[in-house]
C-alpha cells in the first residue's frame, strides 16, 4: 500500500510540475528569463561591486584626399584589460568591409526574386540584387606592436583577429598600431551611414566620415567578445576611451568633429576665432562663425594646400567628423545646471534658411530636456551636420537630413522631419553614446529609449509638435498586423521585421504608456533617471533596465515586460456586457422603438399564448436572452436584494456591521457590472469614462493586475449615485487598443437607436 501511495504521490507531483511548465501566466515573474544576478550585475539592476569594462585609447592621424575621395590613416591603440580574464587575442571591427564585393551583407539580402516582366528600378537592383563593382572596404597596410614588429592577424569579413605575442593578463595592457586606407563611398548612390555627397553645381564634396578606422570590439561579462558580424543593420558595440585625432584636409575646408579643437589658431582666421569665442557666451541665440556669404566664396577656392585639425576627446566610445568647404557654421552656449556646452550646426547653403533658423535651436532643446530626464550632458559640445537623406549619430556629432526646396520654401513635413531627426540623433549622445548599450544585439535599447525621450523633448520644447512615435494611438497599425509579419522587441537587430516599428516606435510607446498610464510620471521619471545615472559610461543589458525601473519604483512590472517586450500580443479589450442594477428596482420592458408606456399597454391587450412543446425545447435560455439584450440601458436597471447578514457568517468575529445603514446607502446608488474580454492577449490597465444623465463625466482607472486571476475575461462592478448613459473604454487612447469600436456602451450597433430613444438623435 505504501508503494502505491508513494507512486501516486510522485505521479501527482510530476503532473503538477508539468502543468506549471505548460502554463505560465502573464503575471508570472520573469524569473529565469533574466540572467542570474552576480558580482557584476545585481538583482536590483545596478552594477555590482566587481563590475568592470575595458578601456581603449586611440592616437590617430587621418588624411582626407578630396581629389581621390579616399581616407588614409594610422592609429596607435592602447588596450587596457580590466577584465578578470586573460586574453590571447583581440578582435577588431572593420565595418567598411560590409561594402566589399564578397561581403555577406549582399549575399544574405533576401528581397524576393525577380519575376518575368517585372520592372525593377536600377538603383534598387544595384543595391539589393547585384554585387557591387566598386573597390570598397578597408585595405589593411600593416599591423604591428608598438616597436614595429609585425603581428599575425586574420580577417573574417567585418572582423579581424589579432594574435598577441603574450597573453594580456587581467589588469594588463597592450599597445599596437594599424595603418590602413579605403575609398570613400558615394552615399547618394551607394547608401551608407557615412560617405560623401557631391554637389555638381559648384563641383564640391561634403564628407560625413564615420566607421573610418579599425575599432576594438567589445569584451564584456555578458558575452565575452561581441564579434557578431556587421551586416549593416545591427549597429555598434564599442569600448570607452580617450582619443587624440589629427585630421588633414584641404586648407579651405571647415571640419566638424568629435572632441575639443586643440589648435584653433592654426586652422581658424582671426575673425572666425573671435566669433567662436563670442558663441561661448551667447545663451539666447546662435552666433554665426562662418557666414553663408563666406561659405559661398569658399566653394570657389579649391585650395591645393592642406591644414591639420587636431581634436582631443575624453571618455567617448567612438569618433566621427565632417569636412567641406561648403560649410556655414553657427554655435550657441547651453546653460545647464553645472556646465555650458556648445550647441553647433554645420550646413551648406542648400540647407538654408531652414538650418540657420532651426538646427541649433533643436540641439539646445535636446540637451536641456535629455539632461532633465537622464543625466546632465557631460561633453563640451553637441554638433548637428546637414547631410541629405541620412540620420546618424556619433559622440558629440550627428548627420541629419532636411533640405528645403531650391527656392528656399519649406513644407511642414520637411521642417518637423528635420527637427525630429536632429533631436533624435543628438539624443543618441545619451543612448547609447553615454548609456552604452550593445547595439549589435539590442537595437531597441538605444533606438527605442532614445525615441521615447525624443518624444518628451518634442512635446516639452515645441508647441503642437506632430510627434510620429510615442503616443499610444500611433502604434496600433503595427500592433494589429498579422503575427507572422512582426517579431517581439526582444529580437536580435538582424532578425527584426518592420524595423522602424519594432526597434523605435514600439519600445518608445511602451515606455510612454509605462510613464503616463501605469506608473505615473513622478515614479517613472525618478526610476528612469536612476537607470541613466547607474549606467552612465557603463554597458547595461536589458535586465538592468527592467530591474532598475522596478527597484526604484516599487512597481511589479514583470507582466509588462513579458507582454510588450517578449510577445507579439496586442491590446484589444472589449466591453462585452454591462448590467445596470438597483436595489429593489422594477424592471422596465421598453424596447428601443417604443416608450415603456406604449410597450406595457400593448402587452396588456395581448392574450398569453401557450407555448408548444417544440417552442419550449428550442427557446433561448433566459441568461442568453439577457446577454443579447444588453446592448444599451433602455430596459432600465435590474433588481437585486441586499439581505441582513446571518449571524453564522461572523464566526468568532464579534464586531457586526450596521446592515440597515449599508442597505440604505446602497439603495441610493446605481450599480454597473461590466464584463471585459481580452481579445488581443496583452493585459493592460482598464480606463473607463462614465457619462451621466446630467452630462457630467468621471474617469475610473483600474490597474492591469485586475486580470491576474483570469487573463481572458473579468467582471467588475462600479457604483454611482447618478445614472450612467455612456461608457467608453480607453477614452484618451492611452493603452494602444487596436479596436475602439468594441470600447463603447451602448454598443455601436445599438447606439443610434438608444440615442433616438433618449432624444439625442
From TrEMBL:
Q: Where is the Peptidase M1 membrane alanine aminopeptidase domain?
A: 368-564
Q: Where is the composition biased (Basic residues)?
A: 602-612
**What keywords is this UniProt entry annotated with?**
Aminopeptidase, Hydrolase, Protease
Q: Which GO terms describe its biological process?
A: peptide catabolic process
Segments of this protein annotated with the region Disordered: 591-631
- Determine the domain of life of the protein's source: Bacteria
Please list the residue ranges that the record marks as compositionally biased, kind Basic and acidic residues: 613-628
A single MF term (Gene Ontology): peptide binding
The GO cellular component terms are: cytoplasm; extracellular space; membrane
Record-linked Pfam families: Peptidase_M1 (PF01433)
Q: Tell me what this protein is called.
A: Aminopeptidase
Source organism (scientific name): Portibacter lacus
Amino acid at each position: 500500500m505504501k508503494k502505491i501511495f508513494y507512486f501516486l504521490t510522485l505521479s501527482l507531483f510530476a503532473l503538477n510540475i508539468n502543468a506549471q511548465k505548460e502554463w505560465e501566466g502573464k503575471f508570472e515573474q520573469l524569473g529565469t528569463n533574466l540572467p542570474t544576478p552576480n558580482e557584476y550585475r545585481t538583482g536590483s539592476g545596478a552594477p555590482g561591486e566587481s563590475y568592470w569594462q575595458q578601456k581603449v585609447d586611440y592616437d590617430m592621424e587621418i588624411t582626407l584626399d578630396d581629389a581621390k575621395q579616399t581616407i588614409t590613416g594610422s592609429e596607435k591603440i592602447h588596450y587596457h584589460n580590466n577584465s578578470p580574464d586573460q586574453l590571447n587575442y583581440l578582435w577588431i571591427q572593420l565595418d567598411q568591409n560590409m561594402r566589399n564585393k564578397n561581403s555577406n551583407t549582399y549575399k544574405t539580402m533576401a528581397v524576393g526574386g525577380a519575376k518575368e516582366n517585372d520592372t525593377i528600378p536600377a538603383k534598387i537592383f544595384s543595391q539589393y540584387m547585384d554585387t557591387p563593382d566598386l573597390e570598397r572596404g578597408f585595405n589593411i597596410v600593416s599591423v604591428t606592436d608598438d616597436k614595429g614588429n609585425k603581428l599575425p592577424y586574420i580577417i573574417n569579413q567585418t572582423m579581424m583577429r589579432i594574435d598577441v605575442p603574450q597573453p594580456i593578463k587581467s589588469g594588463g595592457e597592450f599597445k599596437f598600431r594599424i595603418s590602413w586606407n579605403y575609398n570613400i563611398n558615394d552615399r547618394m548612390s551607394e547608401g551608407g551611414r557615412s560617405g560623401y555627397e557631391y554637389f555638381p553645381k559648384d563641383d564640391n564634396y561634403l564628407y560625413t566620415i564615420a566607421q573610418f578606422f579599425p575599432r576594438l570590439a567589445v569584451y564584456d561579462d555578458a558575452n565575452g567578445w561581441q564579434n557578431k558580424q556587421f551586416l549593416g543593420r545591427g549597429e555598434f558595440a564599442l569600448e570607452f576611451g580617450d582619443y587624440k585625432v589629427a585630421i588633414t584636409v584641404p586648407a579651405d575646408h571647415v571640419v566638424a568633429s568629435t572632441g575639443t579643437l586643440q589648435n584653433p589658431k592654426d586652422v581658424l582666421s582671426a575673425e572666425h576665432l573671435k566669433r567662436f569665442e563670442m558663441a561661448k557666451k551667447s545663451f539666447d541665440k546662435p552666433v554665426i562663425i562662418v557666414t553663408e556669404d563666406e561659405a559661398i566664396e569658399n566653394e570657389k577656392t579649391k585650395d591645393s594646400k592642406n591644414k591639420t585639425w587636431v581634436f582631443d576627446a575624453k571618455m567617448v566610445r567612438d569618433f566621427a567628423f565632417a569636412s567641406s568647404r561648403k560649410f556655414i557654421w553657427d554655435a550657441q552656449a547651453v546653460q545647464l545646471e553645472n556646465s555650458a556646452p556648445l550647441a553647433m550646426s554645420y550646413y551648406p547653403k542648400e540647407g538654408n534658411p531652414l538650418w540657420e533658423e532651426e538646427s541649433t535651436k533643436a540641439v539646445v532643446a535636446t540637451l536641456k530636456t535629455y539632461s532633465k530626464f537622464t543625466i546632465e550632458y557631460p561633453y563640451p559640445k553637441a554638433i548637428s551636420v546637414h547631410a541629405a537623406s541620412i540620420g546618424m549619430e556619433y559622440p558629440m556629432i550627428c548627420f541629419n537630413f532636411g533640405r528645403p526646396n531650391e527656392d528656399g520654401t519649406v513644407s511642414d513635413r520637411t521642417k518637423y522631419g528635420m527637427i525630429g531627426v536632429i533631436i533624435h540623433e543628438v539624443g543618441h549622445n545619451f543612448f547609447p553614446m553615454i548609456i552604452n548599450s550593445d547595439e549589435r544585439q539590442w537595437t531597441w535599447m538605444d533606438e527605442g529609449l532614445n525615441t521615447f525621450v525624443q518624444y518628451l523633448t518634442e512635446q516639452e520644447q515645441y508647441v503642437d509638435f506632430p510627434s510620429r512615435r510615442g503616443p499610444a494611438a500611433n502604434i496600433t497599425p503595427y500592433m494589429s498586423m498579422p503575427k507572422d509579419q512582426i517579431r517581439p522587441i526582444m529580437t536580435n537587430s538582424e532578425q527584426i521585421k518592420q524595423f522602424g516599428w519594432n526597434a523605435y516606435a514600439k519600445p518608445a510607446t511602451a515606455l510612454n504608456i509605462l510613464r503616463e498610464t501605469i506608473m505615473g510620471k513622478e515614479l517613472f521619471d525618478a526610476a528612469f533617471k536612476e537607470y541613466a545615472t547607474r549606467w552612465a559610461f557603463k554597458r547595461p543589458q536589458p535586465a538592468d533596465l527592467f530591474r532598475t525601473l522596478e527597484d526604484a519604483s516599487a512597481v511589479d512590472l514583470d507582466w509588462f515586460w513579458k507582454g510588450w517586450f517578449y510577445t507579439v500580443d496586442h491590446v484589444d479589450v472589449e466591453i462585452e456586457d454591462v448590467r445596470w442594477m438597483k436595489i429593489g428596482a422594477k424592471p422596465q420592458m421598453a424596447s428601443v422603438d417604443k416608450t415603456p408606456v406604449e410597450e406595457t399597454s400593448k402587452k396588456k391587450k395581448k392574450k398569453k399564448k401557450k407555448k408548444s412543446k417544440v417552442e419550449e425545447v428550442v427557446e433561448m435560455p433566459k441568461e442568453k436572452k439577457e446577454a443579447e439584450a444588453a446592448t444599451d440601458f433602455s430596459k432600465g436597471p435590474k433588481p437585486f436584494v441586499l439581505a441582513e447578514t446571518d449571524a453564522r457568517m461572523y464566526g468568532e468575529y464579534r464586531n457586526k456591521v450596521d446592515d440597515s445603514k449599508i442597505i440604505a446607502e446602497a439603495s441610493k446608488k446605481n450599480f454597473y457590472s461590466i464584463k471585459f474580454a481580452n481579445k488581443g492577449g496583452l493585459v493592460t490597465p482598464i480606463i473607463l469614462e462614465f457619462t451621466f444623465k446630467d452630462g457630467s463625466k468621471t474617469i475610473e482607472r483600474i490597474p492591469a493586475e485586475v486580470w491576474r486571476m483570469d487573463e481572458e475575461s473579468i467582471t467588475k462592478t462600479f457604483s454611482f449615485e447618478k445614472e450612467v448613459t455612456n461608457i467608453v473604454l480607453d477614452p484618451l487612447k492611452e493603452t494602444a487598443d487596436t479596436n475602439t469600436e468594441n470600447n463603447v456602451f451602448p454598443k455601436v450597433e445599438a447606439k443610434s437607436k438608444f440615442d433616438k430613444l433618449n432624444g439625442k438623435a
